Structure formats: C-alpha cells, structure tokens
Amino acid sequence: MPAQPGDALADIDTPALVLDLDCFDGNLERMMSAAGAAGVRVRPHAKSHKSLQIAHRQIAAGAIGVCCQKIGEAEIFLGGGIRDVLITNEIVGVRKLRRLAQLAKLFSGARLGVCVDDTSVVRQLSLVCAEEDAGLDVYVELDVGQNRAGVATSAEAVELAREVMRHPRLTLMGLQAYAGSAQHRRGVPERRAASKRAAAKAAEARALMREAGLPCEIVTGGGTGTFMYDAGGDVYDEIQPGSFVFMDFDYARNERDADVPQFEHALFVLATVMSMRGDRITLDAGLKAFSTDSGPARPTFTGWQVQSVSDEHSVLTRLDDSGPDVRIGAKALLVPGHCDPTVNLHDWIVTVRRGRVEDVWRIDARGAVF
Fold it and tell me: Going from the N-terminus, what domains does the chain have, and what CATH number goes with each?
C-alpha cells in the first residue's frame, strides 16, 4: 500500500490516488440534501469509484443502491453487501446472460436489474433465467440523446415492454433514460435544454406504456451535470450521478449555475518531482496514473502547466512567477481530467483529512470490465 493511517500527505508513496475526506463528505451531503428536497431517490453510479467503502457510505447517507456498468462490478458490489444494484447497460450473449442469471439466483434476497433494448436479448434472458431458476428486474432503455444504446422511439419502448411482460421471470420496472451527452454541455442553458428534451421523451414513453396497461414504476437517469434539472421535474423518480463525489477537471469546465449545489474537487493524483531542469519539472505520474481522454491532470498550484505526458512521467513548465518554487522530492497534487478511468488505474484510494492519512481503501472493482 502507498501509505498507512497517520502518515502525512508528504509521506505518501507516489503515484497515489488521494481522496480529501472533508470534500468528499461535503459533496455527498450536498447531493443527498438536494435530491431529498426535490423528492427524488439517488442511485449513485459506482463505476466512478469502484469502491465498496464509498458505496456503503453513499447508502448510509440515504442512497437506495448503486448503478454499475458490468456484471463483474455487480458481482463485487452484491458480494460486498450492497443489496440493490442496477446494471445501466445491455448484457448480450448467452454466456454473459447465464452469468447474470446465476448472480441473481445467488443473491436472491437482493435486487438486481438490467437494461434491454432488443427483443432477442429479452427472450434469451428469459430462457437462461428459467434454466437457472432466477428472476431479474428489467428496464427498457430509451435513447434520450446519447446516441449509444436504447430504443429510439416511445412506440418501440412500448413494444419492448410488452415483450418483457410476456416472460414471468422478468419484472418490468420502467425506463432507463440517461442523457450522458448532456452532462458536459458547457453552458447552463444548453444543459438545461438537453435535460428538458430527455425528460420530455421519457415522459412520452412512460405515458404510452401506461396507456397500454404496462407498468412503469421507475424512470431512472440523470447525472452529475444535470441532476438538479432532472430532479426538478415530475419525470425522474431517481437520479444516477457518479462523478459528484470526486469532481474531475472536465466537470470544472462546465459553467456554474448559481441555483445548483456546487461540488468540490475531492480526488487527486499525488506525484513526486523526480527531475528538474531550469523552468521544467518532471513528475513520476503519467498515463499509467491518470486518464487523459479529457485532457491531462491539472496541478492544483498556479504558475505551472502540463506540457507533455508519457507512460510514467508528466513534464510541467513554468508559466510565470505566481507559482511555488519546487525541489527534487517535493509532492504535487493534480486534479484528474476524468475521474472514472483514472480510478480504474489504481488499486488503492488513500483517504486524507486535514493533511493526514485516515485510511486506505481498496478499489474493489478495479478491472471488472466484463
């Protein structure tokens, strides 16, 4: 492990993933308070943190369960005591579907849900559930702007829901309506509008399902960038924010809305200055320590910028004299550009409160990508 409880921040071995517990606790409290006031449930997305410790803290704070993306993640969270898990993804192929049914049977006292957008998959899922003597919650996924998965129209949602209802091993719960592309619309008006469009499409599908005599108990979706807009209407019963507990640099690019609770950066990559040449410093954290799909990690101090990133190094150059002087062996905190894939690169999260290590949490679902 990179640290022990009681260690100072400067004594943590690097590269390390560091979580500021005061900021984390504040982010969690703000989300749960806002959702409670809006009358919606929170099902945080666990793909962001992949940690049983964090999932249990979220549920203790009032979350109803967690989302995940893969069966491997669901196996770990159910096995770790989480009793309500929704896989917000399609599961395809007999081998995977059988594994899903076996998981549902193994944890028959828990709730396990999955999304569907194809009739043939529903039939395969029903077959393997019957063979394994298992049952599953099922959500029809509606494409509300992500253009990635989900049925395209409300009529298709009704037809697929009818198919689900034909199979007694499957329980139709409602709609998955996640507008992922809306989360990083930079302007407030653009995010509001994207959320409104998604909600309108979900409301139309729900109405048609109910008119057809089909149950639609839950409309679930929403994320960190739009959660207050999603929660503010009468469409979403639960929201699925994930990044809010960490807040990466890409979310910091979004225009702030004064009417929406603000979250703080809580997750950092800690690195060590390993080389210096004039106005250039090299850190011991690179592509194997943080994801760069949303840009490189950003230093928390001014006066320096990341010039280049390679497997094991980040090179920073001095912009001006506003930043600190540095020395060989000094530690630097950087905010990752995208928290989810960054977390998946690490085995541990070092939790820190007021400059001291409080605990080290395993990233239990690291690598659970199938």
Answer: 9-16+263-362 (2.40.37.20), 22-247 (3.20.20.10)
